[in-house]
Write a structure and sequence with these properties.
Largest sheet of chain A: 5 strands, mixed
Distance between the termini of chain A: 25 Å
CATH superfamily of the largest domain in chain A: ATPase, nucleotide binding domain
Shape of chain B: globular
CATH topology of the largest domain in chain A: Nucleotidyltransferase, domain 5
Number of strands of chain A: 9
Largest interface: A-B, 27 and 19 residues
Structural class of chain B: alpha/beta
CATH class of the largest domain in chain A: Alpha Beta
Oligomer: heterodimer
Structural class of chain A: alpha/beta
Number of domains of chain A: 2
Order of helices and strands of chain B: HEHEHHHEHEHHHHEHEHHEHEH
Bound molecules: iron/sulfur cluster
Strand content of chain B: 5-15%
Chain lengths: ~260, ~400
Amino acid sequence: MANVSAFAGVDVGSLGTKTVILVDGEIAGYSILRTGINTEENGLHGLETALENAGLKREDLKYIVATGYGRISAPYADKTVTEITCHAKGAHYLHPQTRTIIDMGGQDCKAIRLDEDGNVTDFAMNDKCAAGTGRFLEVMANVFKVSLDELGPLSLRATEVLPVSSTCTVFAESETVSLLARGERPENIIIGIHHAIANRVGGMFSRVGIESDVFFSGGVAKNIGMRKALEDVLKVKIVEPKKDPQLVGAIGAAVIAQNSWKRGR
Amino acid sequence: MALKTLEIIKKRLEERPKEIEKARREGQKVVGWQGYNIPEEIIYALGLIPVRIGVGGDDRMVEIGARYISTKNCVFVRETVGLFAENNDPYVQNTDILAFDATCLQTYRTAEIIQYYFNKEVLILGVPRNFYWPEAKVYFTKEVEYFTRRLEKQAGKKLNYQILADTIGLYDRIRNAIVTIYTYQAAAGNYLSWEETYDLIHAGYYLDRREYLSLLEQVLAELREKQGQPFIEAVEGEARIFLSGSVLPPGDKKLIKIIQEVGGRIVGDDLWSGLIPYLDVKIPENSLQGLAVGYLNRTPHGALPYLDLDTDRRIKRLKELIQTFKAQGVIYHTLRYCDPYTFKAKETKDILQKEGIPLLEIHTEYAGSDFEAIRTRVEAFVEMLKNRYDEEVAV
Ligand code: SF4
């Protein structure tokens, strides 16, 4: 491609490194890789993979924005922006009517409120415990000896919601083991776990409020069971994402990269 | 940016513990105090040396304190107990008498613990729970009188009202100087940062108050010369932050550093370890009642209940100060187990939101483990504030 102006957003999260390449405001390529120990290398590797996916070269990139917890070691980026701002921009890009975001990532979850331009107006964040995070669901998937992707569909096959009272990873694990030992159906326990998380996440909205349209982002948003549980507990309709919800932060970062370059900073 | 006088103050603070030790050898007594409503003027007028005790930010000291006081108390009071348990702090070592007020019940508990475990002579000043009733005036006046009688016993002399009048004058000048310095730090083209101003306030916890006033006046003279007339205005690209909530005592710099690191500019506060105790103090007459009334009429401490949100002086003052310092957002700091301020966070947020002022609550303690988590929140808040001015991240 001659004279292409490409922009990259690199979101180095605790579990996954997501990269998005934007050309003329459209997503030209992306990558999702597992985050390893060296966050700088992860970011660079994500960038190369996404460029390859887009059929572009490093020289085509005019501006790079890094986000996520790994943004602090991203010397390849022209600028770093927090994941909170990036998720807002990303969700706005995919669905401009978004006013509330529930973001559930590998190690934290966030409630973000935004205005009609995709600017953050308020937010709350839970990173004190694993409740409502990908890590928590990974542990639970292990207990049931299924893959993470299977958890959501399994929960939809439940016949009743078994109450799981704890969202502390350690206690929830032992609670689950005892429920299984009691002979309860795994699907009913799994939906109970999803509801327990949704209740916990609901607590964040008592601080920031909730307004439609509601967008669900982050790796956990791929879990259809979690999405359904959130809709039931929060009594809201969650919009259908047009792209992989795990990419939202990286999309937002790429949008910011494009705008920053246009404005000359 | 540092002013010359700041260097002098730094040096004087290094020398001060030795000076106090010497004064004690020569027979003077030191009153270490903590709280919000102690009329320090009385201590000074009786020829006793007032020192405000209590530092923060040291998790090790908190652990030591927790051997004596329940972990369900805030880290500030746990660290205060730790200071007495370890007994290495020169000001703690050189305290003859302790004075605590009962504004926050956790500080009151601290006083009891220190008396019980470390055999310190402790004076408690009772504080009315409701500052707005006329009975509060009567009660607090009686408490101040009783407090004075006990201090007189320690000083071995009666309070001289001429000296008290001079002392009130001295303290009024200190208060005025601090308020004026705050205007300079918040102004455009400032030569003194908020953090330096905050340290300047804390210097006054230890230095002799007469010397302190002259140093403050020197700071002001330097500022007038360099900065001229202060003019407070919000500059494009700035994220002007107002700090509110639980105490940020000397030594607790975690949040301050984070705000600065991510590009925020602190321009004001209503912390009881900051500006608020120096505001709105009008002692109506040279008497103990005058002092009691003057202290009661200040903005009440957060540990006292809200009575009616619409008329509460704290909220009113908070809104005025945000305006005065042209702050764009509030970072509301709450310490774990500081119930007084934590309970008020949501109400304060809702009230300010109606005025279009965003508030970010940061709930923390002295351990460094939450540094990155706080950093992300504060950074996002700073981005949000900057974005209101500067559309660089707008679609
Ligand atoms: S008001 Fe809060 S921070 Fe201050 S002493 Fe009481 S509990 Fe601790």
